[in-house]
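ugh finaly. both done.
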Amino acid sequence: MSSSTFNASHGDGYELQMGRWSRRLAPRFVEFAGLSAGGKVLDVGSGTGALSFELASNPAFGAIQGVDFSPAYVAHADRNNHDPRVRFQIGDACALEFADASFDHALSMLVLQFVPRFDVAISEMRRVTRPGGTVAAAVWDTRGGFVAYRMFFDTAAMVEPSAGELRKRVYIRPLSRPGELAEAWRRAGLRDVVQDMRTIRMDFSSFADFWAPNEGKDGPIAEYVAKLAPEVTTRIRSAVQGAYLDGEPDGPRSYAATAWVVRGTVPR
């Protein structure tokens, strides 16, 4: 079984699809994690580097190690890294190639919902974190708090039955319900578990900006659209455009996106 169901193709594609929003979420997630100053931090599912680079903005951290399943994303992060404390490498969240207790903290942002064996990944994050260290994660609230996704899937499902089937799978991704992250953290044996929410805004300059990621190769929507016949894509695009415009002229729009966040401590 693959350790990732995320359709990963190119770093620039991910930046357009999600990386620009990851950079907005990263500081709020780091603040919630409440990491003690200093030491080494592991970024599991580092993607194009948003979380690692946010961590590096704090000079107190001695080393930040990013790990991602996608060679393309690791290469993209490497090209944009100018901090000797930060390193990226290809790796499997379910089989981390690090010794026990090698890091002071382990974080994961917007990744675990795409890991079929997420319990294994969480256990691995705990294993490589020292006693007393923090293990934290963030995932989108795909059912209730991700307006841009709902706009696409709710609208597309009215036009094309296959979109309705995908909609069901996307909305009920693992760890998307209230309390699920906290339960997973407690199952992993972590202590002092806290689950909360953090919200950002996704700002688009126009409908073309909103739709552009769907014509790429990264993420679930682009993966779905790429398989459609051209006439079906046209119908869905027209319907989604109507939802975006909402009876007003084309132009900027801003949508809320809420993530569930969780943190816990490795027992001493």
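ok and the 2nd:
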Amino acid sequence: MPAVVSTLALERPRSLKAALALLASEPALTPIAGCTDVYVGLHFGTMRERRFIDLWNLKELRGISVDRDVLRIGALSTYTEIIASKLVQKRVPMLIAAAREVGGAQIQNRGTLGGNVANASPAGDTLPVLAAANARIVLRSQAGTRTVPFDGFYTGYRASVRRPGELIVAIEIPRIDGRQWWRKVGTRRAQAISKIMMAAVRGPEVRIAIGSVGPTVILAKSAAAVLARGGSIVDAQAALLNEITPIDDVRSTREYRAKVAANLLESFWTAK
């Protein structure tokens, strides 16, 4: 049953400072921005939250820049803005490839990178890219700012180390050395939730990340180590299958996801 509008409350701060003050006084407020997932949850009655803080107009959380060779993407940067960014195209083309497959134009215009991270779905299209890119999540509260490695950000299914009163303000991506690779497998290339997706980097360091095969995005360190030391693709595939825990759901089966994950790994490693 859809949520009853009269039971909902919304705060709209005009600055990041005001937003952090509101969260400090009421940490249970749920941050929202593009609302591409929130509206769906409210419509189907699956969201328990009733008090929200709207961040959409906070200019401090927007913008894409490079500082000291680190790409900084504001949490409210939309997929459309990421796709259009020459800085992202030059440094993280696999992020643009992922952003292009997030829904249609309407979702890309409203959905934000920070929202995808905060939503914490293992099917989030950009999350394997951020894991493979060795990204960092910048969190801010009234108490100060801290930066968390993306690989240590999630603690379980839709759970993270973000504390009450904290906001995701930016995502930082250091320079990536090597060839970048991205693939999504779904009912359609876009406008469909992923059955499985993989992002990877082949360079001085091999990094492989997969979504929709576990409670969180999986950084396949064992499979990457096998390939980095010159092991066979068969051995790397075996290592990968020990690292992932796919499930049966309405979109696919455990067996299918495992098979596709192994095939994607081979496709990445043999790509020219």
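summary for the 2nd one i guess: The longest helix spans residues 254-270.
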